[in-house]
Amino acid sequence: MVDELFYQSIATLSDRLAKKEISAIELTKAVIERTRRVESKIQAFNSRDEDDALAQALASDERRAAGDSKGPLDGIPIGLKDLIAVKNQPLTASSKMLADFISPYDATVTEKLKQAGAVLWGRLNMDEFAMGSSTENSASKTTCNPWDISCVPGGSSGGSAAALAAGEAIATLGSDTGGSIRQPAAFCGVVGLKPTYGLVSRYGLIAFASSLDQIGPFTHTVEDAAMLLQVIAGHDERDSTSYKTQLPDYRADLKTNRGPWKLGIPGEYFGEGLDPEVGAAVERAIEFYRSKGCEIKEVSLPHTRYCLDAYYVIATAEASSNLARYDGVRYGHRSKKSTDIVDQYFQSRAEGFGEEVKRRIILGTYVLSSGYYDAYYLRAQKVRTLIRQDFLNAYQEVDALITPTTPSPAFKIGAKVDPLSLYLCDIYTIGANLAGLPAISIPSGFSTAGLPIGLQLIGQPFAESNLLSIAHAYEQAHDWHGQHPQI
């Protein structure tokens, strides 16, 4: 039974821990042993501390023995993307710039996981500073897709998705700026949820694009996503963008909210560039919902064509501003080649940042510069408002939207050398970030090559409970989430 533990759901494991069928030590050892066996092939972790994880597990078992369990996550090993701060642990963002940095404090989500008794397990690889769609931009290593190690796991949260799919964690956290949770979730055949902007605190998250970034869970099931969201969501005074709202019981709502729902099909997401196998999987999902009595309606999001352009103006502008702090003086990489303070600034940034990060900093600095701000950044923000309004107009008629998560299944490592071709991987996910909406990717089949295909559902603002219920209805009628790669 121990060998099977690493692929069981949080809900199942939590129940077994409560019944004392297993211990947190036993579960954590199973995850550690699994990681030892497969990590050389997957390369999901930047760092991990087995002794610390076992100490956390022991503390969990002692709490249970004393009748003081902290709840359903107590004793569950959860991995964190390497840009979420954990006190006294490495925090590198997979960049040379922060190669030796140790976080002096916990992120809010880290605090909440600790308060819930979770076993924090490892720092997971990612595209450098979350800039990428394949985890090939990491300064640390290239993570592989557990379903085919010659393929990418997606990005930027590729390590989080791959570790979960490979059984190296029971759940993980990632961040989503333009699809960085949902796209790797689709590529790796797991559930990935991007909450509404402001629902989960960003305090302690290394910023890429502050108006777009959002932390969210990777899990094996929708129920697990609901359980993890319940813990990490909520208002935080340390995050000025955190939203005050009453949290429902997401897990309980899965059992009571059974629809039927009104679901919209945006035609703009089913055009040129969509892989036929992905399109067919989404069509089958649409027919499933129709068979369950859901009203299926075609809707239009006319400004979708501008999503990619607006995103790469706004995101790079904010990245340019956020990454200005890495100057070789206060913290981060400091060049040993510099001759004076100005040269130190240039040399440190040249050596510390990778090519994709430099590309985005340069583009962002350009669109913010005098004479171009109005033409690019301000105009992109106006287009963003139109994109959000498109979604809100659609939600006057429907409860949620059904789309593909990605244009294709996972591609081969090294196959996309042109930056634009990588940017297009996020064409179906960017809109939810620009509009600040919740969206989830769930497994919906496999390609003929045996690679997972993801189905995306985009919900109304702060309507995660409804979104999770819609996703759960599909998941319960299919077994895609219960299939795991042979590594």
Describe what this molecule looks like in 3D.
This protein has 487 residues and is of the alpha/beta class. It has a single domain, classed as Amidase signature (AS) domain (Amidase signature (AS) enzymes, Alpha-Beta Complex), CATH 3.90.1300.10. It has 16 helices and 11 strands. Strands 1-3-2-4-6-5-10-11-9-7-8 form an 11-stranded mixed β-sheet, sandwiched between helices. Strand 2, helix 4 and strand 3 (119-124) form a beta-alpha-beta unit. Helix 5 packs parallel to helix 6, helix 7 runs antiparallel to helix 16 (464-476) and helix 10 packs across helix 12 (355-368). The longest helix has 22 residues, at 373-394. The protein is globular and about 65 Å long.
List the helices and strands and how they pair.
Layout: H1 10-18, H2 24-42, E1 45-47, H3 50-65, E2 77-81, H4 108-115, E3 119-124, H5 158-165, E4 171-175, H6 182-188, E5 191-194, E6 215-219, H7 222-232, H8 250-256, E7 262-266, H9 276-291, E8 295-299, H10 307-322, H11 341-352, H12 355-368, H13 373-394, E9 400-404, H14 419-423, H15 430-435, E10 439-446, E11 452-459, H16 464-476
Parallel strand pairs: 2-3, 2-4, 7-8, 7-9
Antiparallel strand pairs: 1-3, 4-6, 5-6, 5-10, 9-11, 10-11
Helix pairs in contact: 2-3, 5-6, 7-16, 8-16, 10-12, 10-13
